[in-house]
Design a protein that fits this description.
With 359 residues, the protein is an alpha/beta fold. Helix content is 43%, strand content 14%. It contains 15 helices and eleven strands. The chain has a seven-stranded parallel β-sheet with strand order 4-3-2-1-5-6-7, with helices on both faces. A four-stranded mixed β-sheet has the order 9-8-10-11, covered by helices on one side. Helix 5 links the parallel strand 6 (110-113) and strand 7 (131-133). Helix 5 packs across helix 10, helix 5 packs across helix 13 and helix 13 runs parallel beside helix 15. The chain is globular.
């Protein structure tokens, strides 16, 4: 019988895909942590019959038909301590995903990680041997590399909601405009981060921790068919082509190896033109700190905290779209001398940056 898993963020797109993969391979679900979509969580509970469930808000406790429901951030950590599963899929969004990643590793569990912020904020305090990335870009790099020495790594970006907008129009764009991703439907935060290119900045920083190199860059590939490229020391370059479907990296993370079809093969004759475009700091101002952040990855905690608060201000009408990057860059400059020596320092810096952005 397959070993069971714990799924954090089960009602988001990664969580839903994870449960589909688990069903395909008959993987038992020991615990589910859901988001605000309580109706979907209820359906998942009925189908997968987890031993434990956790939700964000205690006021929703009576809406969940299950005898073991834990609540809030502490409830997620308690759920991890109660479970016997050695594999945890962390698909939580934002800084809230960091503490569960750390606790799962402390408990000897392996983490299939979709929560970017865990590595962005605290990569130097996380044992990479306990992490399996399930972002399509990092999976693509892993799939390509093997043990061959590489020269440079590339991940790709869609370009986000405003890739075809003029800069003057972007400056007056609304929150709803930024959510109109040209390729797919995702949660609000990751869609906004795609529009600002912060999502790709985070993925580059993740790749630094995962692959132990600063020779990493990103380019725009509009169709989201090429996810990663590796330039090797021998002068060759290889690319990872696949449909934009998270089931493939999730399947590898849960199974270790795959010998059957997860996605339909691409029809190479129907792909048409493929091209790459430069990411410019004119349209994506956050990109100007890319190289500095790669050399100073400890500042990821500053970027993440400032970005989360600036997005809230944009949603509430207190920021323009470009105001998100303005506030992040301002905080990045102000807190540039901060370097956490422990997780407690990370928590302190995170709080100080958020207070600074919201002042």
């Amino acid at each position: 019988m397959q070993e069971s898993i714990v799924v954090l963020g089960s009602t988001g797109s990664i969580g839903v895909n994870t449960l589909q993969v688990a069903s395909k391979f008959n993987i038992p679900i020991e615990a589910l942590v859901g988001g605000r979509n309580l109706a979907l969580l209820g359906e998942q509970i009925a189908r997968h019959k987890p031993k434990y469930v956790a939700i964000a808000d205690a006021k929703d406790r009576d809406s969940i038909d299950h005898p073991e429901v834990l609540c809030g951030a502490e409830g997620i950590l308690e759920l991890l301590e109660r479970t016997q599963s050695k594999r945890v899929v962390n698909a939580l969004v934002g800084y809230a995903g960091l503490a569960p990643t750390l606790r799962a590793i402390e408990l000897g569990k392996r983490v299939a990680l979709a929560n970017k912020e865990s590595l962005v904020v605290a990569g130097e305090f996380i044992d990479m041997k306990q992490i399996t990335p399930i972002d399509s870009e990092h999976f693509g790099l892993w799939y390509l590399l093997g043990d061959r020495p590489f020269h440079k790594l590339y991940i790709t970006a869609s370009g986000g909601a405003f890739r075809d907008w003029e800069r003057d129009a972007i400056a007056t764009a609304s929150f709803e405009d930024a959510l109109r991703h040209p390729n797919w439907s995702m949660g609000n935060k990751i869609t906004i981060d795609s529009a600002t290119m912060t999502n790709k900045l985070f993925e580059i920083l993740e790749a630094k921790w995962l692959f132990g190199s600063s020779d990493i860059d990103a380019v725009i590939e509009r169709r989201s068919i090429i996810h990663a490229l590796a330039q090797f020391k021998d002068g060759s370059t290889t690319a990872h082509f696949a449909s934009a479907d998270m089931k493939l990296p999730i399947a590898f993370a849960l199974q270790g190896s795959i010998t059957e079809e997860i996605l339909p093969p691409l029809d190479l004759l129907e792909l048409g033109e493929m091209r790459f475009e430069t990411i410019t700091s004119d349209k994506y101002p956050i990109w100007q700190i890319k190289e500095h952040l790669l050399q100073n990855p400890h500042l990821g905690v500053v970027v993440n905290a400032a970005n989360e608060e600036a997005i809230k201000r944009f949603e509430s009408g207190k920021n323009s779209f470009f105001g998100i990057a303005d506030q992040v860059l301002d905080a990045y400059s102000c807190f540039g001398n901060h370097h956490a020596k422990s997780i407690d320092d990370i928590i302190t810096i995170d709080k100080e940056v958020r207070a600074y952005v919201c002042k």
